[in-house]
Amino acid sequence: MSVKINPEKDALFITDPQNCFLPGGVLATPKGDEIFKVLNPLAKKFKLVVASQDWHPPNHISFKDRGGPWPPHCIQGKEDAEFSPKLDQSNISLVVRKAFNPDEEEYTAFDEHTRLSNMLKARGIERVFFGGIATDYCVHDSVIGALKGGLDVYVLTDAIKAINAKPGDEERALEDMKEHGAKLIMSKDIVEK
Ligand SMILES: [Zn+2]
Question: What is residue 192's predicted lDDT score, i.e. its pLDDT?
Answer without folding.
Answer: 77
